[in-house]
Design goal:
binds S-adenosyl-L-homocysteine; 5-stranded mixed barrel
Length: 253
């Protein structure tokens, strides 16, 4: 199996890249695709950049040019469920593109992707469970070694959890409590918002391959969402997602 890993954080891609052996790389469409081995798996790794177009382009290149048959997308996200806190890891069991709306046509539902006949992209349950176990194991056994207690305290991260649910993606950074309230009313079981996951899920659906989207919560998508992002990503989020993904690859069966 060839596994494609895409990330929206350069720092995290850098950390994952350091774990790869036998690396070769190629630049296509202004992105670098790195091939190598992690835990005996053939991995293709790329920094997708942000947004649905960038993520879709990277995902399609991984499939069409490098022949990957499994996609993993990682990064940070804004938590919208009051139970989801900064530092929690959210694993998508369903994904929706919240900025897609052609519901002016009588037969179309809100969020429905035109001419595809669906408004959401469920993730296979066995993949969700595999990722959940790996992330929980990482939090329990490795987090303490990789991120200092002082750093966790700085971002008020007390007991991070792994939460599964719906992730909504759109081409906008959301920092507006009213907007999240509206989205929560329309999208059942919504846990967080970000800018790439549901686009990658659409590509995976169209090519009929499995995909996993795994996010560390960086903010609450509310009026205080503009936190100290660069510091959070370098000192917290990149370790959370990189650690969980490495654990997933190690435990893979
Ligand atoms: N790292 C950036 C800020 C990230 S914002 C910085 O250094 O300033 C864009 C990225 O964060 C996207 O990959 C998006 O998927 C994710 N993201 C995190 N919180 C978000 C929110 N509240 N709304 C939308 N996207 C969010």
């Amino acid at each position: 199996m060839k596994i494609g890993i895409l990330g929206a954080m350069e720092e995290e891609i850098h950390l994952l890249g350091k774990e790869m052996t036998g690396c070769t790389s190629e630049v296509r469409g202004r992105r670098e695709y790195i091939n190598g081995q992690i835990s005996g798996h053939d991995i293709y790794l790329a920094f997708s950049r942000w947004g649905k177009v960038a993520a879709s382009c990277s995902a399609t290149t991984l499939i069409e040019r490098y022949g990957v048959d499994y996609l993993i997308f990682t990064g940070v996200a804004g938590g919208v469920d009051p139970d989801v806190n900064i530092g929690d890891i959210v694993i998508a069991d369903n994904l929706v593109q919240h900025d897609m709306d052609v519901s002016f046509l009588p037969q179309m539902k809100e969020f429905e992707i035109p001419l595809l006949g669906r408004a959401d992209f469920p993730v296979r349950q066995e993949e969700v469970e595999k990722a959940r176990t790996a992330a929980e194991n990482w939090i329990r056994e490795e987090l303490g070694e990789q991120v200092s207690a002082k750093t966790l305290e700085k971002f008020a991260i007390v007991a991070p959890r792994v939460i599964c649910g719906t992730i909504a993606s759109g081409d906008q950074f959301i920092s507006d409590s009213n907007k999240i309230l509206q989205l929560r009313q329309k999208i059942p079981n919504l846990r967080c918002v970000e800018m790439e996951g549901a686009a990658v899920a659409q590509i995976a659906y169209e090519y009929d391959i499995p995909c996993l989207v795994l996010r560390t919560i960086s903010d609450k998508a509310d009026d205080d969402a503009i936190i100290d992002f660069p510091r959070f990503i370098t000192s917290v989020a990149s370790f959370f997602t990189c650690g969980s993904v490495l654990r997933l690859l190690k435990e893979w069966d």
